Structures are given as structure tokens and as C-alpha cells.
Write a sequence for this structure.
């Protein structure tokens, strides 16, 4: 497969495939005599794995660890679970932070009359120090 074909088969853009190669996340592809990249079905499978991990919010470093575990038939599932659990904890923290942001913004938006008056609780709230509201 050429890079366009593996991109279509994996759902990963050609640009990202080249990026993953440049950072060593995937091995460099074989090249034809004319310099075109050549890929195999396993490469498409690997790229689908990476895309799915990215869709779940794993960082490139975490994906590198997951790939290492995936390639290790002697791995302990506890190692994979530990990585997933750490990612879940990070997601929970980010969700909590986003929920707090939303709650604050909803309260500010509800306090705003949204009419011709110049006073704006939203701008006043943004000008306050955190925790002062």
C-alpha cells in the first residue's frame, strides 16, 4: 500500500503518518526505488490502534507505552490496566475542571441582562480574582 491507501485504510491522514514516523512512534516505512513509502496490512492495523488511542485521549507518550505493551506477549494485563486507570483519573480531573468552568460561566451569563445597559456581570466576573465571587 502507498501512503494514501494506508491513510484511507487506517483513518489516519498521510501528514500524521509521516509525523508518527518522524517521532519514532511507528517505524519508518519501506521505500520503493523511486522513494515512495510502502506499507503493509500490519501498518494499517497499527495506525488504527494509534487512532483509536488518540480518540480516547491518550497522549503520544502513553500511546508509545501502550504499543510497547501490545507488542510484548509476556506483558501483564495489570500494566495495561494501570496505564488506563491513570488516564481515567486524568480525564476525571479535566472533567471536574471543565464542569467548574461551566458552572461559573453559566452563573455569570444568567446574571447578565443582555440588554442595552453597559454594566455586565460577565465582564465583572472575569475581572475578579478567582475565588472572590
Amino acid at each position: 500500500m502507498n501512503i494514501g491507501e494506508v491513510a484511507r485504510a487506517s483513518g489516519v491522514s498521510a501528514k500524521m503518518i509521516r509525523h508518527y514516523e518522524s517521532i519514532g512512534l511507528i517505524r519508518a516505512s519501506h521505500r520503493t526505488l523511486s522513494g515512495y513509502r510502502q506499507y503493509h496490512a500490519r501498518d494499517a492495523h497499527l495506525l488504527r490502534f494509534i487512532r483509536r488511542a488518540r480518540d480516547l485521549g491518550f497522549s503520544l507518550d502513553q500511546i508509545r507505552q501502550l504499543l510497547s505493551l501490545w507488542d510484548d506477549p509476556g506483558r501483564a494485563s495489570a500494566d495495561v490496566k494501570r496505564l488506563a486507570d491513570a488516564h481515567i483519573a486524568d480525564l476525571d480531573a479535566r472533567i471536574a475542571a471543565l464542569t467548574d468552568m461551566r458552572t461559573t460561566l453559566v452563573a455569570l451569563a444568567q446574571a447578565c441582562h443582555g440588554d442595552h445597559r453597559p454594566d455586565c456581570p460577565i465582564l465583572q466576573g472575569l475581572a475578579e480574582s478567582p475565588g472572590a465571587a
Remarks:
- The chain has a mean pLDDT of 93.
- The helical segments are 3-10, 14-22, 41-55, 60-70, 77-111, 121-127.
